[in-house]
């Protein structure tokens, strides 16, 4: 999920994406109401258990990632991609690809800025010449549906959008929720900014975790989101310092952010 930090960083946004077509889709129980068994499963998958919320479809962790019951019952046995000291992480499940695969995307009930932002994100992925491509459709059942929800700031952050990870069957996570609250993107959303958040959330849908997973430094924090003991695979040719411009940083800088050279290495490694 991408959120934007309020106050200390750019004015209105909070570094990770989250969207739903109904406001009640983000109503949640408090962390104290989540069972210890569920928290243990979340931790075993490598996620922090602070501020876990029960939402439609599963549990919201790290402020923008939805874990389903299927995710919670998945045995962890796969490696993590490492990009220098700031790491590019993959999830246990990835999108299954045989040769090439096209993933369809539908924008439901959102305005023109979100439609144009989706087209921007899709174009960026397609220009990367991967074995997966994306196509926006206007009707029917899509692989990924982008919907809206409205939720104001909380704890110095505002959620921009949320999504989840691929299924065990090898399909992308099927929903991206985008925040339509005026303090998320303003009354006249910037298409490139909206597009960069959708681009980030699509990254989760196809199996990427946050680049600053171990520190959340992009959020002005020093918090490890959790380590499930996946192992790590270093990607040759990447730098040894903090990767400050990755598209998968936990928190947004309030502007346009797309793939950098290391992101493209990671994408091509997987797809």
UniProtKB/TrEMBL annotation:
Keywords: Hydrolase, Metalloprotease, Protease. InterPro entries: MetalloPept_cat_dom_sf, Peptidase_M10/M27/M57. One of its GO terms (molecular function) is metallopeptidase activity. It comes from the Bacteria. The keyword Hydrolase applies. The keyword Metal-binding does not apply. SUPFAM superfamilies: Metalloproteases ('zincins'), catalytic domain (SSF55486). PROSITE patterns: PROKAR_LIPOPROTEIN. Pfam families: Peptidase_M57 (PF12388). This is Zinc-dependent metalloprotease. It comes from Chitinophaga filiformis (Myxococcus filiformis).
């Amino acid at each position: 999920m991408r959120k934007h930090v309020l106050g200390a960083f750019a004015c209105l946004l909070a570094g990770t994406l989250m969207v739903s077509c109904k406001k009640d889709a983000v109503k949640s129980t408090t962390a104290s109401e989540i069972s210890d068994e569920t928290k243990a499963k979340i931790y075993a998958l490598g996620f922090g258990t602070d501020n876990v919320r029960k939402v439609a479809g599963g549990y919201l962790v790290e402020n923008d990632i939805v874990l389903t019951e299927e995710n919670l019952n998945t045995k962890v046995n796969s490696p993590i991609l490492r990009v220098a000291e700031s790491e590019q992480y993959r999830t246990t499940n990835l999108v299954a690809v045989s040769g090439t695969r096209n993933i369809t995307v539908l924008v439901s009930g959102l305005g023109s800025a979100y439609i144009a932002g989706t087209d921007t994100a899709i174009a960026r992925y397609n220009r990367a010449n991967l074995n997966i491509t994306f196509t926006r459709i206007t009707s029917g059942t899509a692989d990924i549906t982008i919907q809206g929800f409205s939720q104001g700031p909380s704890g110095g952050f505002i959620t921009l959008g949320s999504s989840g990870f691929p299924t065990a069957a090898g399909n992308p996570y099927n929903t991206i929720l985008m925040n339509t609250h005026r303090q998320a993107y303003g009354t006249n959303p910037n298409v490139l900014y909206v597009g960069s958040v959708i681009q980030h959330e699509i990254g989760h849908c196809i199996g990427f975790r946050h680049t600053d997973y171990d520190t959340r430094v992009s959020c002005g924090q020093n918090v490890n989101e959790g380590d499930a003991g996946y192992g790590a695979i270093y990607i040759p040719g990447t730098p040894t310092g903090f990767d400050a411009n990755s598209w998968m940083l936990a928190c947004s800088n309030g502007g346009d952010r797309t793939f950098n050279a290391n992101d493209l290495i990671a994408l091509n490694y997987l797809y």
